[in-house]
Design a protein that fits this description.
single chain, alpha+beta, 8-stranded mixed sheet, 10 helices
Length: about 325
């Protein structure tokens, strides 16, 4: 048995046993941070169990691990941190699978390296009652993660490693998003929206606003917005639905009969969770060509509506080169 007194010692021990093991490997951690793959060498085949709790486990990290062929399962209330190999030992520690615990963070951790036989891993797993992470689980974690970051913008993770549209399209359990298109028009802030902004944020300032139909989007949705003139799509950008507010007909200056909701993004995009993918030059070109294929605004409304159908995603992907 060896006592591990620092995060660096814990990281080295986990890396060594996971990289050299020729048998089964299991990681149990309460939370999985954004850079989790940096602490799991040779990820292919690892069994991972974690708690899908917003603010602790990052859904983008889970998708990255799945892409690298880690078998991910979820269990509520997990607090143990166990890094076990069949033939190279086991690390019991206070450290989660995150940069805060094992990397550049300031958390103070401790652990112990013991022989594999010291832990009956099957008994430990059985006590967790875990289940494989499903599409429904990932959707729920996405929603809760976006809500958590919205409420705590100071902890927002960096966007430097934004996902490309191609990687999003090929991703298992990919994040969902909505679509909205517009022609140039000015939206007047509703009185109800003004009050909500002042009560919750101390001012009626906001970053972006649009009108919407019933069911077009929900709070915390990411919306791909673009301008349509004829058959040309341009100025694509992400909008985050911080507030979705129904405008009463009595507010005549702001009410729009066909679109009685106002969607408001309060802060800059960087204040929220990471969008589903980066809008780069290749995607802008793909969007332009896909909209041109559909043949104008009326056809877009019939074909795409406001949800991203599989057919439209496939059409975008066919033009993404």
């Amino acid at each position: 048995m060896k006592i591990l007194y620092t995060s660096a010692q814990i990281k080295r021990a986990i890396t060594k046993i996971f990289s050299t093991s020729k048998g089964r490997r299991v990681a149990i951690a309460a939370f999985v941070g954004q850079d989790a793959t940096a602490y799991l060498p040779r990820p292919d085949g690892i069994e991972l169990v974690c708690w899908p709790k917003a603010g602790g486990t990052n859904p983008d990290a889970i998708r990255d691990l799945m892409k690298r062929k880690v078998s991910v399962s979820f269990a509520n209330g997990v607090h143990m941190k166990v890094y076990w190999t069949e033939d190279r030992g086991v690390v019991l520690t206070s450290a989660n699978l995150s940069a805060n615990a094992l990397g550049s963070g300031s958390l103070k951790e401790i652990g112990v390296l013991m022989p594999s036989s010291a832990i009956n891993i099957n008994k430990a797993l059985a006590a967790l009652n875990a289940h494989p992470a499903s599409t429904r689980d990932m959707d729920k974690l996405d929603r809760e993660h976006k809500a958590y970051v919205k409420a705590n913008p100071q902890i927002r993770t960096r966007m430097a490693r934004g996902c490309s549209f191609r990687n999003w399209y090929l991703m298992a359990n990919r994040p969902k998003w909505r679509i909205a298109w517009y022609q140039v028009a000015k939206v007047r802030l509703a009185q109800k929206a003004r009050k909500i902004l002042e009560n919750e944020h101390g001012a009626h300032d906001y970053w972006d606003i649009m009108t919407a139909t019933k069911g077009q989007c929900e709070e915390n949705d990411w919306i791909l917005c673009f301008n349509v003139e004829g058959r040309v799509a341009r100025w694509a950008e992400w909008m985050f639905a911080h507030h979705v507010i129904r405008v009463p007909p009595s507010d005549r200056r702001a009410y729009v009969s066909g679109a009685p909701y106002q969607v408001i993004q309060v802060f800059r995009t960087a204040a929220y969770s990471q969008p589903p993918f980066v809008i780069d030059t290749k995607f802008r070109r793909a969007l332009r060509d896909a909209i041109a294929d559909l043949g104008g605004l009326e056809s877009i409304e019939k074909t795409v509506q406001t949800k991203v159908t599989r057919e439209f995603a496939r059409l975008l992907y066919s033009h993404y080169k």
